[in-house]
Amino acid sequence: MSTTRIFATSLRSLRTNPILASSHHVISRGHRIINSPRSCAVLSSATLRPFSTTRIQRHGHITPPKPGEELYVTFIDKEDKEHRIAVSAGDNLLDIAQANDLEMEGACGGSCACSTCHVIVLDEEHYDKMPEPEDDENDMLDLAFGLTETSRLGCQVVMTKELDGLRVKLPSMTRNLQASDFTQK
């Protein structure tokens, strides 16, 4: 019997028989209904497992900079308009751009699986202060439109004090290759 069916059956039993609602009861084959003031659930002794939680991370979430701790990054968009933005250490360029409504797609959600957050670092001095790109990033950069010697993926560039004053240009186009682009129609 499926868990959903057991749960539905148990709820019907509770509604029709208030005596059942007062304690734990075995339903069938080790399933039991747990009723407390806070919850009512059907559990299987075979499926009970401990769980843990981790800090929630939201896509596009950036931390507002504290007064006096601002770092600045300047994005130059496709129309050559400059956008100077105060950011916090630890924020990446993709999240910063999206939070400020700049045209940076980030199709993969920042998982380094596309090249739609491609940026061109304008100052070699800042580029040299960045950690070397990982192999995954280099593989994705090979697919980027308008690749240069100072190209990086915005999702992989994390702001630090050393990068304060960073200037990046958004390329005139991006490539978003998908598996569906290669299927026969």
From TrEMBL:
Database matches in PROSITE patterns: 2FE2S_FER_2, ADX
Cofactor(s) the protein requires to work: [2Fe-2S] cluster
Gene Ontology cellular-component annotations: mitochondrion
GO MF term (any one): metal ion binding
Keywords: 2Fe-2S, Iron, Iron-sulfur, Metal-binding
Superkingdom in the source lineage: Eukaryota
2Fe-2S ferredoxin-type domain mapped to chain residues: 71-174
Recorded coiled-coil stretches: none
GO biological process: P450-containing electron transport chain
Record's signal peptide: none
Family affiliation: Belongs to the adrenodoxin/putidaredoxin family.
Protein name: 2Fe-2S ferredoxin-type domain-containing protein
Organism of derivation: Xylaria arbuscula
